[in-house]
Here is the input.
Amino acid sequence: MPHFDPTLIENVRSHPDSEELLPGAMPASLTSVESSIAHKLPSSFKEFLTQINGGVMGSIRLFGVARGDYFDLAEKQNEYGAFIPPIKAGMMIPFASDWGGGLYCFDTYHPSQDGEYPIWYWNHEYSEEPADAPYVWSQIETDFAAFMRAQFTNENDG
Here is the structure.
């Protein structure tokens, strides 16, 4: 069963702040990135990437696969893993960032029965001071499909 209806995909493509969107990723690219990061990606995320392979989407910058640019998921895993221990350990997989430097991540330690991961937000504003550690990570959504619907559901869709 699909996670996204065509209306949501069109809302993303037609959003006035969407840019640098690439056509859908190939299945081999998805398999390759799963191998390189040593984790299965949730089916909702893979489904979305077969439609739109990352880019700027409203207030988020979604990472794609085999992009060869700033939005490449495997590159971001390595980059952020260099200074964020849960990412280095593979507990969290960054899949998007916001314009303020925060990250949206898949929590690989708590998958649902259907292989989806909860979405956690890493707030860089609280990442510098040890006293702020309790505020660095917060769960914001149950899965990727819910996260994207929250970002792009048209107010007129009810």
Remarks:
- DSSP finds six helices and six strands in the chain.
- Residues 6-157 form a domain with the SMI1/KNR4-like fold (CATH 3.40.1580.10).
- The beta strands are 55-57, 60-62, 92-98, 103-107, 119-122, 137-141.
